[in-house]
Protein 1
Amino acid sequence: MTQKNKTLGEFIIENQEEFKYSSGELSRLINSIRLAAKVVNHEVNKAGLVDILGAVGETNIQGENQQKLDVFANEAFIKTLTNREIVCGIASEEEDDFITITGRNERNENKYVVLIDPLDGSSNIDVNVSVGTIFSIYRRVTPSGEPVTLDDFLQPGNRQVAAGYIVYGTSTMIVYTTGHGVNGFTLNPAIGTYYLSHPNMTFPKTGRIYSVNEGNYVHFPQGIKDYIKYCQKEEGDRPYTSRYIGSLVSDFHRNMIKGGIYIYPNTAKDPNGKLRLLYECNPMAFLAEQAGGKASNGFERILDIQPTELHQRVPFICGSSSMVEKAEAFMQNTID
Ligand code: AHM
Ligand code: MG
């Protein structure tokens, strides 16, 4: 069998040994994310049929209550992750507090916590533009047998054991890492199977795409303004191309394939930026590094930040390594 005929299910089984605590649980956990992603994908693909199937809050022809897609995605992932004896806690962008899963006979013996942004970029749904799901997985730090605590979720990103995203785009893909590189799988919707379509994904060392919401330019820190001017300067392979979808997953995915940088800086209005450290930045940073790229807040590696709150925000600069280094140099004012 060639690499590319391989299904995600086969890939998970074959690579189970790579994982240092290999008891099969992490594999089963990724499997359950794969399953929930199919359910969400089916719903996302129907989003344009809202006038036909019924709008949010209405009851459709089958008697089902129509939900907002981000609520639907949140429930689909939580339900799937809860129904196995693997996950002891879930934190979601859609929930104020983390959820405790006590597991079989309420014994609190499950090992993993999952942090998830169930439907990122959801303002893009109504206009038929790609959205995504982002997930991040850690082993619990509190002793087995006790309910999870906030400490299980506030681990620095460098302790992640797996992370990934699903992009609901022109095709649906799941891209993930368990710390042994990054692999991408494309869903064949006709048969509901994901195939290994992008083995060993890597960021080109440099690129020509910068992705930032330039509408906020006047509020950006001077270092980011200077970096944007650098991207736009006519010199060498510049000016670069500006591409911004407004869905982190899609912008990241394109930049990883083509080479580029994604920036969501702090602004005068939002001193910590917009993106969430635990569900958005850490998983993307882990993927970026596993693919040979970098992720920084301008001064510090994202994965080394010690989180202090569940919904903490951080400035985020992520992508091809030499582009991130250049942006950091502008932020730190060390450019010559
Ligand atoms: P969300 O979690 O509310 O969907 O926000 C996250 C999204 C990212 O996917 C995207 O890159 C960014 O917000 C876009 O923000 P803006 O519209 O301010 O440029
Ligand atoms: Mg989000």
Note: The two ends are 52 Å apart (CA to CA).
Protein 2
Amino acid sequence: MKGIRWRAPRRAPFTPSRFLLGLFTLGLMATAAAAASPAPTGPSTSPDAGAHALLGQMTQAEKFQLIRSAFGEPDPAHGLAKPAGALGSAGYVAGIPRLGIPAQQLSDAGLGVANPINVRPGDGATSLPAGLATAASWDPQVAYAGGAMIGNEAWRKGFNVLLAGGMDLQRDPRNGRNFEYAGEDPLLAGTMVGAAVRGIQDQHVLATVKHFALNDQETARNTIDARIGEQAMRESDLLAFELAIERGKPGSVMCSYNKVNGDWACENRFLLEQVLKHDWAFPGYVMSDWGAVHSAAKAANAGLDQESAAEAFDKEVYFGKPLEQAVARGEVSQARLDDMVERILRSMFAVGLMDHPPQPGPIDRQAHLAVAQHTLEAGAVLLRNQDALLPLASDLKSVAVIGGHADKGVMAGGGSSMVTPYGGNAVPGLEPATWPGPVTFDPSAPLAAIQALAGGAKVDFASGDDVAAAAALAAHAQVAVVFVTQWAAESFDAADLRLPGNQDALVDAVARANPHTVVVLETNSPVAMPWLDRVGAVLQAWYPGSAGGVAIANLLFGKVDPSGRLPITWPRALDQLPRPQLPGATAGTSAATSVDYGIEGADVGYRWFQRTHREPLFPFGFGLSYTRFAHGEPVVEMHDGRPRARVTVRNTGKRDGADVVQIYVQVPGSPVRRLAGFGKVVLAPGQSREVSVELEPRLLAGFDTATQRWVIHAGRYAVYAGRSAADLSAPRYVQLPQRRL
Ligand code: BGC
């Protein structure tokens, strides 16, 4: 068992008819109760009015019922059965039929609905590729479509609250949850997660942006204190949350396990009350992470609105008796309790939980697979392509496919976000078999997909267990494609950047046997590639998702152009990072310790590399294409009081492709250039288009802690059009007046 998480063993199956009956009853309850309730419901009811009216009719006991969820799975370790009415997932809050308040069925769903197997044995769900793949598409429409896919699948499976919207910034390539998040840049991550949240909520399923805040490593996550100054925090991790929340309007925000500047995130008045609810005017509710609550009155007064699965995960059920007593004693005001309840109800109205209860029904699995496929096709990153080895020629004679269980499927990440695939795990039996496992492969085999596109070519497979045999196979093939995998999961971090097992030796041996070697990475995040100079091509396919095999083959054969660009910096080695040693790593996962994010402060990722003149292996924003793009000189102008950059992009190659215009800004006196806007454009050969990019004012500003405002200082700002953070046009300058935002 890693960390303090405990997961229920898969429980005894219950029959589909019971499942359907349960859902049917839920629907009936909602309808019947709504009819009996004098509370206003229906599309014309404003969320505030609806919530207020309901609150006025609630008893104190009913209020307490809404401010905590139960673990939705049976929990034998604590002697807890699955709550009546719960579908069998991360959380459950019973409804209040007399008032027409539906139950809240909470499921993890960062990449796909995570719990269906508990609900209906043999069921599964569609998994998107890693969040990093979505981010690497630099296309908010891709993120929106992915969110809508998950939201629809959840709604059809009976869930109305998703613990989806992973927003922690990548400050370390070793973080075991990088695959759930959207990279290192606040603007890119905030934009993409915001779009995914909108996609989910447009399906009438409430989304949860998490983990607020600075839960940027898993090592010692339950004890670690993230130390960072206010300005740096506001301009980095908090800015990412601010943008995602502004754009996505999630119903809920989940506070994290760690401490921030000395206070637990779930009782951190600065984070919850001041920043989130006051400064950002967030009207929704704060739910805790599972096991992240440490007090009743302090947490409630700091802004926590709903305690999650307390019986199973917290030391006490703080929002039960202890909070009741605190309210009775006046330590927590009745007004605060009412506010907690009203926020929950408000979000339920705002997202449509009252009027659009989940409807069991058919899921368009082909359409959902297409979304997963398109996400990877738009988000895989071609890192290397010597002598145009890729795309593979259609008249290829022979291909050796090697390693990574490519004959069976593609790697997925572990922990609470893990999706049980339709059709089951393609490679069962790998360790760990229990939480945060089982180690899972999505059953979309690259081998079959390559065979399908390889025409008459001879396609052979070697598992890679026997390095010499794999090298021999490669030696006799025209091209070798080696798949390498790195499993990562919630609750632990990678010890270093090395690929596990014999995989480096395998790639090395294959590359020595065949100079036409392509490496496909299925990894959580950057890994070291000691063999890089010896291989012809490298494609980062992240965790590829439910249609991963097909998407990878399409990319290898050039059915689609690789248009992903790195949402992270790829370091050469750990000593380039702000913290070569992971804090807490030697002390054991439960030891109290702190992590100093003040080292890099707001200069996360590429900005740290710029500030310290380090050269990464691949810079943020980097990615190759099969075609070529010419960028015109950027034009920078003021538009409605905001700076805007226009760049003409022309496809000068021979194939269709998509390119990303990245606009970086250098604030006067700063050594770093921040991403302030971006736009992706699809172009046919010879076609050109002007890409117009609005620059986000907060990326031009600094957060002034004295006045608690963003301030753009008067001065001459350098604006660059980039193909990556390290490949920039000549600067254009724009004079900006002093301005408070
Ligand atoms: C994770 C959350 C997740 C929750 C419920 C926690 O361990 O940190 O991301 O939503 O469990 O499964």
Note: The domain at 626-740 is CATH 2.60.40.10 (Immunoglobulin-like).
